[in-house]
Amino acid sequence: MARRNGIAIRLVWFIATALSLVGQASSAYVPSAGCVGLASTVTRGADLMDVFVAGSDGAVYTAAWQPGDTAFRGWWRIGNLEVPPCAPISAVSRSANKLDVFATGLDGKVYTAAWQAGDAAFRGWWPVAGGLAQPGAPVGVVSRSADKLDVFV
Fold first, then answer.
1. Average pLDDT of 18-28?
2. d(CA 18, CA 140)
3. Three-state DSSP string of 105-150
4. Can you tell me whether residue 50 is helix, strand or coil?
């Protein structure tokens, strides 16, 4: 593992792990995997990864990895939001063990769902501040400081 300015860089491991996930996504691991949208990967804490995709059925799915796992766990459907098949999904960790997922639904509304430690499943989908876009449009999101999000469409 290389270090730069005191920060551990695990780029090679991350890329290899993400590529192994893409390989899984193209097979029967993702429900309705006729196509899979661009994967959004986020870390919610040290050595914890969560991946989000839209399947060919228009549902949003997640899978997770933590130390000790030999492969990603999942795929779990997140709520009942319908997006265009294989639409881009965005995700961010706004603070430790908190995840927020964003997508543009079939109705053109921008939606979010959330998860935090202790939740059995994601909560949501809620419209974001009346935001509208083309159905399936990408949503950009960033956490500029703890529990503060900026959303771009």
1. 42
2. 20
3. CCCCEEEEEEEECCCCCCEEEEEEEEEECCCCCCCEEEEEECCEEE
4. strand
Please state, as a whole number, how many other Cβ atoms lie within 10 Å of the Cβ of residue 66: 13
Cβ neighbours of residue 133 under 8 Å, at least 6 residues apart?
Answer: 104, 108, 110, 139, 153
Whether the per-residue pLDDT at 80 is higher than 60: the answer is: yes
- Judge contact between 86 and 78, C-beta under 8 A: no
State pTM to two decimals: 0.78
Cα separation, 22 vs 132, in Å, equals: 30
Q: Phi, psi at residue 133, to the nearest 5°?
A: -160, 175
Question: Which residues, at least 6 apart from 13, have a Cβ–Cβ distance to it below 8 Å?
Answer: 1
Please answer whether residues 124 and 111 qualify as being in contact, where contact means their C-beta atoms are separated by less than 8 angstroms: yes
